[in-house]
Amino acid sequence: MPLVDMPLEALESFRPDLVEPQDFDDFWRGTLNEAEAAASDRGTDVTASPADSPVRTLDVLDVTFPGFAGEPIKAWLIKPVSSLPLPLVIEYIGYGGGRGLTIDRLAWASCGFAHLVVDTRGQGSSWGNGSDTPDFAPSGPSHPGFMTRGILDPRQHYYRRAITDAARAIDAAPQLPGVDATRVVLTGVSQGGGLTIAAAGLRPDAVVAAMPDVAFLCNIRRGSELSDVDPYREIKDYLAVRRGEVEQAFRTLSYVDAVHHAKRATAPSLWSVGLMDDCCPPSTTFSAYNWYGALAATEPARRMEVYPFNGHDGGGNAHVLKQIAFARALTGTDA
Predict the structure, then answer these.
(1) Active site residue 171
(2) Contact status, residue 36 vs residue 130, Cβ threshold 8 Å
(3) Where does the pLDDT of residue 83 fall: very low under 50, low under 70, confident under 90, or very high at 90 and above?
(4) What is the pTM for the complete model shown?
(5) Quick check: is 190 catalytic?
(6) How many domains, in total, are found in the chain?
(7) Is residue 234 part of a domain?
């Protein structure tokens, strides 16, 4: 598609003053505390056992860890065969996908990192090779998809659960075999990028680097006003029918908007954006990027890689090579 958003010069200074809920920090502190207590009550532990996989040059483990409400979340832990604790890359998956098969994501482990591929609750049926984590929560009226599930109440919204799962994956790191939990790097594409930002903001002291790629969930209202494709279109279609719920819906979404989480992050970050992205318009990603680390005692280093003629594909594997170099530098290893 052609350029339909702001010119790059305007994007680089675009820092919209979004309305943040007054109880934002209390809301998320309470949510994470509830998740931790629920895991203890349910007896949900972090487990890692050898996976049924044809991979022979790497260790592949089937992981379960407690997420929102202590509910079990699945992940793959893929890592080199090594006696040394390895830096950990936690990857969150794009919208509609799941952790897939053990052979789907071997690059990070092949480059010397432990790699935790986190399942996304209730997703895994739109592309890729499936998932293994259900979403147990009930929902009121919603448009097909995940953006409008529980949209009238921040405590019921789908992304309250998914973001909690993302943060709890970081909490699980110290219990994963062969992992150095002091060297945790977050990454993800699209939805995974939004979850990366949110988790980095919720667990700032536990992360050494964050790498959101063509991030979704940033400046959600603007995204729903500019983008005519899913997932943002789900919000537009829902509100076209439920006309009286506009402000209530966007108030709920403000609790999960990655712009607010970005302000609280402290880790150095490497971002990407495609200027022809019709799924996650560039100005939405820049909204979070330009606010990133704003509440930190010292503003963290950040870098945006711009792909002028790419859309939601961003920089593809060419960008992954930049991420590998970035992660190596921030984990202090040639991994």
Answers:
(1) no
(2) no
(3) confident
(4) 0.97
(5) yes
(6) 1
(7) yes
Nearest to 185 by CA among 332, 32, 31: 332
Beta strand residue intervals within the chain, DSSP E: 47-50, 58-66, 72-80, 86-92, 114-118, 179-189, 209-213, 269-274, 302-307
CA distances, 198 to each of 26, 285, 292 (Å):
15, 13, 11
Catalytic entry in 119, 254, 277, 283: 277
Collapse the DSSP code of 115 into the 3-class scheme (helix H, G, I; strand E, B; otherwise coil) and give the result: strand
> What string of DSSP letters covers 20-71?
PPTTHHHHHHHHHHHHHHHHHHHT---EEEE---S--SEEEEEEEEE-GGG-
* DSSP secondary structure letter of residue 243: G
Catalytic residue of the set 5, 135, 190, 283: 190
CATH number at residue 205: 3.40.50.1820
E strand or H helix at 250, and its extent?
Answer: helix 246-254
Banded model confidence at residue 151, pLDDT cuts 50, 70, 90:
very high
Assess if residue 2 is contained within a domain: no
Q: Which position among 157, 260, 312, 319 bears the catalytic label?
A: 312
In a domain, 222, yes or no: yes
